[in-house]
Amino acid sequence: MSLQPVAAAEVAQVLADVAQADPSGGRISVAGPQVSSVRELARSWLSATGTSAVLLPVPLPGRLGRALRAGALTTQSADVTGTTTFAGWLASG
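Now predict its structure.
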C-alpha cells in the first residue's frame, strides 16, 4: 500500500491560510511531497527511533484492499504539496 504523508504543521498552515482568505467554497487537497510504501515508512521510523521490530505483511482483501493497493491514498494533483518528507519530519523530532 502506498501513502503520501504530509506534515501536520504544513496542513495546519494551509488551513490557517484558507480560514483567513475569502474561500470560494471549493475543496483544497493537501498532499506530502513523496509517495512511499507503508513498509518504507515503517523502516524509516524503525531506523530513526532505533527500534527493532519484525515487519509483517497485513493483507487487505476486497474492494478496499484493491483501492489502497492502486494508490487511493495518493495524488499527483494536490492543490498544495508539502515540502517536508517523512524522513525529514522524523529527523526534526
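Strands lie at 2-3, 30-31, 36-37, 80-81.
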